[in-house]
Amino acid sequence: MPNKIVVTGPESTGKSSISSLLAEELNAVHVPEMARGYLEQLDSPYSEEDMHAMANLQFEKELDAANSDVNTVVCDTDLLTFIIWWEVKFGRCPDTWKNLWMNNLPDFYLIMDIDLPWEDDPLREHPHRRAELMERYTLKIEECKIPYSIISGSGEERFHQALAAIHTIY
C-alpha cells in the first residue's frame, strides 16, 4: 500500500492548490476533491442522499489510487471532510461513514490553517465558522492519533511548509 497523505481543513484554505502541487512534487497520484464537480452538476440544493453519493465517489477514487502501483497518494480531502460536513449540515454523520474512515485512515494529515482570506464561491459554506471547523478537524485527527501538521502562510511559503512537514515523516 502506498503512503497516503491527506490535505484537509475548512473551506477556502488552499487545499486543492497545495494537494495538486504536492502530488506533482512528490511524483504521487493526486486524488482531487470530488464534491465540487458533483455539486456543480446539481440544479437544486444538495441533500443527504447527495452526501452519500459524494462521499462514495471520494472514497472510490481514494481506493483506486491506493491500489495503483505508486509509493505515495496525495488526497485533496477524505472521508473526514464528509463526516464534519454531515455533522455541521445535518446534525450527525451515519456510522457507516465514520467506520469506513476509521478503517482507512491516512498515514499523515496536513491541516490547512484558516490564515488565508475567505474567497467567495457559491459552493462554499460557513465563512464565519472556520475557527470552529478548524478545531473539529484537529480534534478528530488527534482522537485517531494520526500524525498531522498545521500548515499556515501563503503561496510558496505554505507549499514549502507542507513539503517540509511531509519530509519529517518520510
Automatic annotation (TrEMBL):
Keyword Cell division included in the entry's annotation: no
Highest rank taxon of the organism: Bacteria
InterPro entries for this protein: NAD_biosynth-regulator, NadR/Ttd14_AAA_dom, P-loop_NTPase
An example Gene Ontology molecular-function term: ATP binding
Keyword Nucleotide-binding: yes
Pfam family membership, one: AAA_28
Stretches assigned to the NadR/Ttd14 AAA domain: 4-158
Keywords: ATP-binding, Nucleotide-binding
Protein name as annotated: ATP-binding protein
Protein species of origin: Phaeocystidibacter marisrubri
